[in-house]
Amino acid sequence: MPTDANAIIPVSELNRRVRLALEGEFPLQWVAGEISNLTRAASGHVYFSLKDETAQARCVMFRSRAQAIPWRLENGQQVEARALVSLYEPRGDFQLGVESLRRAGLGRLFEAFARLRERLEAEGMFASQGKRPLPSFPRTIGIIASPQAAALRDVLAAIRRRAPHLGVILYPSLVQGEGAGERIADAITLAGKRGECDVLLVVRGGGSIEDLWAFNEECVARAIAASPLPIVSGVGHETDNTIADFVADMRAATPTAAAELATQHWFAARQHLVEQESSLLHSCGRRLDQAQYTLDQLMLRLVHPSTRLERSRTNLDLLASRMKGTLPEMLRHKQSRLDHAALALGRSVPRIDATSGRIELLARRLLTAGQKRHAEHSGRVSQLERALHHLNPAHTLARGYAVARDAKGAVISNAGMLATGQAITVQFAHGDIDASVLVARPD
To answer: In terms of Cα–Cα distance, which of 29, 15, 97, 11 is closest to 1?
Structure first.
């Protein structure tokens, strides 16, 4: 930012220009150093210095950024800060505005992680096609973990809670520090060779990327891929991701979640049995209540045989008394109906003398009408016979005519339908002949 060398400017303007020049010249950048002079303000902001053997720089990290750091900052820690070079204008102090922090060396670890992940993914070791399904009902579960780790206690507690009948085999191993990767790979290989379990859990509690680095080593990834056993990776917390997670047949968010995945079908079956037991007990209780109610109703209806006989005898006497009282009345009623029917029958006897003359008259009229109708139909039949006689082709042929037909039997009605030399058949009243056309002379 060029200025006039003779111009006079206030300090505030100078500091502002210096700040703008620094921020424009130096973008966000990673700076390595040791934390010293650490101070936490009541506002939540964190102030400290980054130093090395020959220099130091003041740093400020505001509350919102400081709260995102997953560990507690302390003096003497070696860190890498992603910071903006700036100037605090009121005091003219050179400072770094820190956006994020990571432990020193994490950049190299992340780069190694990314390179290995890219290479193994290119080999197809992460492909879903190669993943093995977990057994629905394993009999024995293998666990690779540190014997003193809280993660192992969490896994065992989850298995006891969800499927206490299952067998558990521990393959102890280091899970952190020098040589931990080789120890984990050896334990995975050993479990596969022995074949003592149906599913293998590789577990460890949460931690930093350095703490979990053993599970990012290539030997562990290749041991998981080569294992004949289905493997569940339960390393770290839900936000942690390791190479082992990508290679394993299934990834669990936590060690406890790994145990839950391995026992999910046993737990579901157990819950189902509990529900079925409850339903069965409820159903049996309801059936027993219904049966008890039915028994109570039957007991109310149950009567001693002597009491039932006495009631029947009383009913029989009552019916006999009623029958004695109503039988004469019934006989009188039936006799009255019989007398009424006899009187009606006498009134409806037909008068034969009066109707016989009418019958004879109708018979004569029917005979006369039948004879007249027969004569009319006979005349009509004779007329139709004469008409049919005149129309009969045989009678026409008998008068000297003939019928010519072609080879297909069709009647020839026009000489123009014939050709010279064409074969025809000529039918007479008695017999027919085959002929050939010499000359056709159409009209």
So the answer is: 15
High-pLDDT (> 90) share of the chain, %:
23
Residue type, 161: R
Strand, helix or coil for residue 423: strand
Question: Is the residue at 306 inside a domain?
Answer: no
Question: Count of CB atoms within 10 A of residue 11's CB?
Answer: 9
Range of the domain at 280: 273-297
Model pLDDT, residue 349? 59
Residues 181 and 292 in one domain: no
Query: Which of 203, 204, 205, 198 minimizes the C-alpha distance to 266?
Result: 198
Q: What is the largest CA-CA distance in the chain?
A: 168
* pTM across the whole model: 0.46
Compute how many other C-beta atoms are within 10 angstroms of the C-beta atom of residue 397: 15
| Structure tokens belonging to residue 277 | 């037991």
Distances (CA, A) of 39 to 58, 59, 60, 379: 11, 11, 10, 145
Contact assessment for residue 202 and residue 183, using Cβ atoms and an 8 Å cutoff: no
On whether both 254 and 188 belong to a single domain, the answer is yes
